[in-house]
Write a structure and sequence with these properties.
Blueprint: E1 2-3, H1 7-17, E2 28-29, H2 32-42, E3 47-50, H3 58-67, E4 76-80, H4 85-94, E5 98-101, H5 106-117, H6 125-136, H7 145-149, H8 153-163, H9 168-175, H10 179-192, H11 198-207
Parallel strand pairs: 1-2, 1-3, 3-4, 4-5
InterPro entries: CheY-like_superfamily, NreC/VraR/RcsB-like_REC, Sig_transdc_resp-reg_C-effctor, Sig_transdc_resp-reg_receiver, Tscrpt_reg_LuxR_C, WalR-like
Modified residues (4-aspartylphosphate): 50
Keywords: DNA-binding, Phosphoprotein, Transcription, Transcription regulation
Amino acid sequence: MIVDDQELVRAGLRALLENTDDITVVGEAAHGREALTQGRELRPDLFLMDLKMPVMDGIAATAAIRADPTLRETPVLVLTTFDDQDDVLDAIQAGASGYLLKDMDADALRAAVRTAAAGESPVSPAVARQMMSQIARMPSRRVRDQELGALTDREREILAHVGRGLTNAEIGQVLFLSPETARTYVSRLLTKLAARDRAQLVVIAHRAGLVE
């Protein structure tokens, strides 16, 4: 389901996404409240969510989806711009699964949708950098030593690459691992660090000083 207050943007996204055999747009919504109503009826596999919208913005909508018993397991993939950087951390807290820039190309968008629908959390490296610029201005809250102490050297290495915004496939290429093995490591990190999703791992990696 595409959620954006601009009709032309929704039409463009629909055209890009449906130009493939494995993605279907089941509905559109102009704001978060409409997305909730239609989402309960249509039960999409994924919400593609804008942040800046009237009535109910993307952050409030994401939090409402996470609180809804019928929708809480549905991934929310946020579309953002550099002007939205003040909201990105709020979106993490609200439960968004991934973050994309609206100027990404069509193939990258389709790939990110597939990744999010499969249960992973795509985070654009550029968005990750914006997130970190916000974190740098926040009061420091270091990751507890015992949390990082529970990680193996390989897990810390994986966490650093997640913090740089790499996907499982990209981590596998860098470390000569299969994507499945990289995914297993990321799952362990989520458990050991009590992180909800990959986006929170990005924050943890930077707070722990694993990424310059």
